[in-house]
TrEMBL record:
GO terms for cellular component: membrane; sarcomere; sarcoplasmic reticulum. One of its GO terms (biological process) is phosphatidylinositol dephosphorylation. Gene3D superfamilies: Pleckstrin-homology domain (PH domain)/Phosphotyrosine-binding domain (PTB) (2.30.29.30). SUPFAM superfamilies: (Phosphotyrosine protein) phosphatases II, PH domain-like. Keywords: Cytoplasm, Sarcoplasmic reticulum. This is Myotubularin-related protein 12. InterPro entries: MTMR12-like_C, MTMR12_PTP, Myotubularin, Myotubularin-like_Pase_dom, PH-like_dom_sf, Prot-tyrosine_phosphatase-like. Residues 173-611 form the Myotubularin phosphatase domain.
């Protein structure tokens, strides 16, 4: 049965950004909806521009019923060309990957996106000429290799008025003063200095213009091997111990070169390692952490679990959800990375030892570990502006190859690896374990991950500061009013209005406590254990129901089933590290002090909001953390209104954040994956030829279902 919404009669044209050009379009395209088993959908126009693929129906023309959390740049039915992952054509019910020139054109087009949306377009009712134009246009502009200057980033920067506040309280680290201020903030200026040796990029195009090295390192040493073998400062701990990173020498060298490089390194180490006063621990991340290829393979498998075409596919994979999740190895990689960050934190905090992270380029896993260590040890990095400044310092100016790692130009899949996404997954583990410690929310992390694929910001579209600077200086890219400036992603007003930006701020953020002893006895949060893998084999339930064996369903994770892979005995942290870890977890949490993530078994979870937000079957209506948050916000608002009545003079003290998220009040209708899945939507379970459904009752009974493995009391 096909439910057809009548074709639109009025002309709907795409909303184009400055510099955006319409390349091709097709009318009478039918877009299937994923929300249920029936072939529901709507007719509209499919267009492709030099920025995005967009589906326009009659709803696109009206501003009625717009969600409160709306992106001003990328709409619900927009896919930026960089966000397209894979495109499949359906020929006689068979799916075929579309690349390059096409001999035959499909009757259906399926677009898988990097933000895990899936679009399903039927072209059966579209004119043949239009089908050829739109399919070949979409495939060509989103899948074929392109030149850097052909990115929409440059078209937009040339055409858009430059009236945005670029800095936005975020330290950009593109000036010498920024580095000196950071040294002063962390009290690192006693042993370290900011250098200008690379001005004009005379040392290396891979290094930033300005960076920080130990005071004893000479300019000649920095110049000798183009910055390789030089310890570069990341951050200083309160006790004086510092976190450093170093770009290693190539491993395959002739003997004489190797001897010279070894002698050079020995000299460098002697200048910064002076026992017993200055200790140094070196950690080669290329041998102690998974390779970039392993990370890419794991994520490729992992994302397939969430690129769901339809309801039938969802319930079919759900039967073996746990084993599929474990086989991807993605959660295990997250756990290993967090464990490495704990090791580094222990050296800095307890052993007062400098740590030198070593990697071939020092721009991938070095960025992940150094960022995580600072988030765990420096409460400033847990504020919004502090975290953004940290990403600028370690990733953008630090030289992470976003262009290659995200494969924005489709040049080489060999270089592709979701390194930055791995970091955000690790930070999310901390955010959901210790919500009051962070000024930002998981929604902030989710939209930050989406911004990787929005090419109007320069932040995630260059491999280095040098590449960005040389791209900006091109004569052809000057506007009438002078040289243009790229937008930075940190100006959130470009994507969201003030009401939507409120979702990025955590109303439960614990402000810096007063030095009062009673303040230290803060109640610890009890954490959900969901979307992870079994700690021990579950005891079979004595009654009929969901939670009996591996055919358990995804919904039970959302209801609190404890699952997770336990640390193997052979992989146990060393005794001193384990002692440090256990000792810290036995004390009350200081939300402005050191934070150590819980990494044992079920504590490592799937980032539900990012990965499940487009799957209606995975949503709990009126449940999840959002229900708890809504109740607390109601209480906060009530307390604040009472405060206003008590003291009219301070009525302005009512928090804008609380009032602006008014949609939370109707929490019974909200999805657990709010604000991406806004209001309750029905999902129809398909009739499958399997015994899977024997024990299923009506969907309305899901939340009321009693089970011995479910414990929701007090969860946040």
């Amino acid at each position: 049965e096909i439910h057809i919404k009548e074709p639109i009669e009025k002309e709907v044209n795409p909303r184009l950004l400055p510099g955006e050009l319409l390349l091709c379009e097709a009318s009478t395209v039918y877009k299937y909806m994923q929300e249920d088993g029936a072939n529901r959908g709507t007719y509209g126009k499919l267009v492709c521009t030099n920025f995005k693929i967009s589906f326009l129906d009659d709803d696109s023309a009206s501003d009625d019923n717009e969600p409160e959390f709306k992106n001003k740049i990328v709409g619900e039915n927009d896919i930026t060309l960089q966000c397209v992952d894979q495109i499949y054509g359906v020929y006689d019910e068979k799916k075929k990957l579309l690349t390059g020139q096409l001999r035959k054109y499909p009757e259906r087009l399926i677009i898988y996106c990097k933000d895990l949306r899936v679009f399903n377009f039927c072209l059966r009712y579209t004119k043949e000429e239009e089908v050829k134009r739109i399919v070949s246009g979409i495939v060509h502009h989103s899948q074929t290799p392109k030149l850097l200057k052909r990115l929409f980033l440059f078209s937009y920067a040339s055409a858009a008025p430059n009236n945005t506040d670029g800095r936005n309280q975020t330290v950009m680290f593109d000036r010498l003063e920024d580095w000196r201020d950071e040294l002063e903030r962390t009290k690192g200026n006693v042993k370290y200095k900011a250098v200008t040796t690379n001005e004009g990029y005379r040392v290396s195009e891979k290094l930033p213009l300005y960076f920080v090295v130990p005071i004893c390192i000479s300019e000649e040493s920095i110049l000798k091997y183009e910055g390789r073998g030089i310890p570069i400062w990341c951050w200083s701990c309160h006790n004086g111990a510092a976190l450093l990173k170093m770009s290693a020498f190539p491993k395959e060298q002739d003997d004489s070169t190797s001897q010279m490089q070894k002698a050079f390194l020995d000299g460098i180490y002697k200048t910064i390692s002076k026992p017993p006063y200055e200790l140094l621990k070196m950690d080669d991340l290329s041998s102690s952490l998974p390779s970039l290829q392993d990370i890419q393979t794991a994520y490729t498998r992992f994302k397939q679990l969430f690129l769901i075409d339809n309801s039938t596919d969802f319930w079919a994979t759900d039967v073996k959800w746990f084993s599929l999740l474990e086989s991807t190895n993605w959660l295990e990689i997250i756990r290993r990375v967090l464990k490495k960050a704990i090791e580094v934190a222990e050296c800095l905090e307890r052993q007062h030892t400098n740590v030198l992270l070593i990697e071939e380029s020092a721009t991938d896993l070095c960025c992940v570990i150094s960022t995580l260590v600072q988030v765990m040890m420096d409460s400033y990095s847990r504020t919004k502006s502090g975290f953004q400044s940290l990403i600028q310092k370690e990733w953008v100016i630090g030289g992470h190859g976003f262009l290659d790692r995200c494969n924005h130009l489709h040049k080489s899949e060999k270089e592709e690896a979701p390194v930055f996404l791995l970091l955000l997954n690790c930070v999310w583990q901390l955010v959901q374990q210790y919500p009051p410690a962070f000024e930002f929310t998981e929604t902030y992390l989710t939209v930050l991950s989406d911004s990787l694929y929005v090419p109007i910001f320069s932040t995630f579209f260059f491999n280095s500061q040098h590449q960005r600077d040389t791209s900006m200086s091109g004569e052809s890219l000057k506007t009438q009013s002078g040289p243009f400036r790229f937008l930075t992603v940190w100006d959130w007003s470009v994507q969201f209005d003030p009401k939507a930006q409120a979702f990025l701020n955590n109303p439960f953020y614990a402000e810096k406590p007063k030095p009062d002893k009673s303040q230290r006895k803060t109640a610890r949060f009890k954490h959900q254990r969901q979307l992870s893998l079994p700690l021990t084999q579950a005891k079979p339930s004595t009654k009929r129901g969901f939670f009996r064996e591996e055919t358990d369903h995804l919904i039970k994770n959302l209801l609190g089933k404890r699952i997770g892979k336990f640390i193997n005995s052979s992989d146990e942290p060393p005794n001193s590290l384990r002692e440090f870890y256990d000792s810290w977890h036995s004390k009350p949490v200081d939300y402005h002090g050191l934070l150590l993530p819980r990494i044992d078994g079920p504590e490592i979870k799937v980032w539900a909001q990012r990965y499940l937000r487009w799957i209606p079957e995975a949503q709990l209506h009126g449940g999840g953390t959002i229900a708890t948050a809504a109740k607390i916000l109601d209480l906060m608002e009530e307390v604040q209104s009472l405060q206003v009545k008590m003291d009219e003079e301070h009525s302005q003290a009512v928090s804008g954040d609380v009032h602006s998220v008014t949609m939370l009040r109707n929490s019974a209708r909200l999805s657990s994956l709010f604000p991406f899945a806004l209001l309750q939507r029905q999902s129809v379970k398909p009739a499958l030829p399997t015994s899977t459904w024997k024990d299923l009752e009506d969907e309305d009974d899901l939340v009321r279902r009693d089970d011995e493995f479910v414990d929701l009391s007090g969860d946040m």
